[in-house]
Amino acid sequence: MTTTPQGNEKHAVPGYVRDHGTHPPLDYPGYGSTALRHPKRPLQLLPHLLTEVTGPLLGEGPIGELDHDLTRQHAGEPQGQRIIVHGRVRESDGRPVPHTLIEVWQANAGGRYRHTGDNWPCPLDPNFTGVGRTITDAEGRYRFVTVRPGAYPWKNHDNAWRPAHIHFSLFGRAFTQRLVTQMYFPGDPLFFQDPMWNSIPDEKARERLLCRFDYENTQPEWALAYEWDIVLRGRESTPFESEVDDD
Amino acid sequence: MNDTTPETTPSQTVGPYLHIGLHWPNGPFVVAEDHPGGIWIRGTLTDGAGQPVPDGLIETWQADPNGRFDHSDDPRGAASYPGFRAFGRCDTDERGEFGILTLRPGAVPGPGDTVQAPHIDVSVFARGMLHRTVTRVYFPENTEANAADPVLSGITDPRARSTLIAEPATDGYRFDIRLQGENETVFFDI
Lengths: 247, 190
Ligand SMILES: [Fe+3]
Known about the structure:
The structure holds two protein chains of two kinds.
Chain A: E1 44-45, H1 50-53, E2 82-91, E3 101-106, E4 131-135, E5 141-147, E6 152-154, E7 160-162, E8 165-170, E9 179-184, H2 195-198, H3 203-207, E10 212-213, E11 224-227, E12 230-232
Parallel strand pairs in A: 2-11, 2-12
Antiparallel strand pairs in A: 2-5, 3-4, 3-8, 6-7, 8-9, 10-11
Chain B: H1 18-22, E1 39-46, E2 56-62, E3 87-91, E4 97-102, E5 108-109, E6 115-116, E7 119-126, E8 133-138, H2 143-148, H3 158-162, E9 167-169, E10 172-174, E11 177-178, E12 188-189
Parallel strand pairs in B: 1-10, 1-11
Antiparallel strand pairs in B: 1-4, 2-3, 2-7, 5-6, 7-8, 9-10
Bound molecules: fe (iii) ion (FE).
Residues 162, 165, 167 of chain A line the site of fe (iii) ion.
């Protein structure tokens, strides 16, 4: 890559796929709080220009040795079922996303967050903060050790309970790829009444938020494993013209 | 073609407890407090009833004062700028307020022969938002550059366009973000 004068056609950069079909709408009546918090004006199309195809590369940022292990951040071990959550981060063109920051936060085994706003009558665990971070390796792999979070009540509708979930935040390598989402566990009985889960229009897309029980990586006498792959938007077309003879 | 092209992972809300997971003590400081030329971009995030949103998160991404990015996908090559992180993050407080200390970005090439006026890309996350929304901050003194900006000039309604122009303040600029209502901020389909 060489420096070129401003305004050159070389600044035509490949855009990222627009994956509207994957995501929930901003206005979803089943989730009461969307009512006053969704834009009513139609969104204005933003072409993917230099600011959008670049983004913070935070991989080298300070990650503490125990940041990925939520069971070892205090003097004692937290209550609950110890689990390993691991997987790969890829782009939708199949390429891995290496050295990218992943942040997670979650409730404790009883479903309580260490947050001043969470005061439902379930005890806090003195040995659990519920916050972790890591960066993916060269192949886009990540791994956390934590405890399985509990379901918790909220007041969205009558007898409303959130299915057990872990909040995930990802950057990828471009502003367009930024993603905040939640990972769920297979077979949770609470999905039917959960507006977050049901806000995703496509059932197949919802299932992409489910981790998979991973017996192979379950550690004897220690922890159950779950595998969850995350896919960020990939480029629309490759910036390099293919010169390959494929006949 | 790759026949195992994976499909993208859906977005979910940050929920009410984003502060424990996404709060960075140094998040608002794109540059250090004593960096020459630092400007604060402060604002309030409000909902459709005009009420502050205390469980929101603002993130910013921008070019450096020379209009460059420290990123290899910029065809001009990656360029670093000492002491400048380019990325800012601030969760809103109980009054819905946020602030980012940064440097004025330079102009950035646009498509063809166009030049984009100095701007900052902004992501907005909150409880009650199932997906982030994206907007842009432009600067009021760049009248001519703003008029020629390919993104700003694509917004035909002048009142809507004006929601993307920050207002001068004593230590920088004010950029209020209104999720809904009469002066709803322009948000982008990104
Ligand atoms: Fe939650």
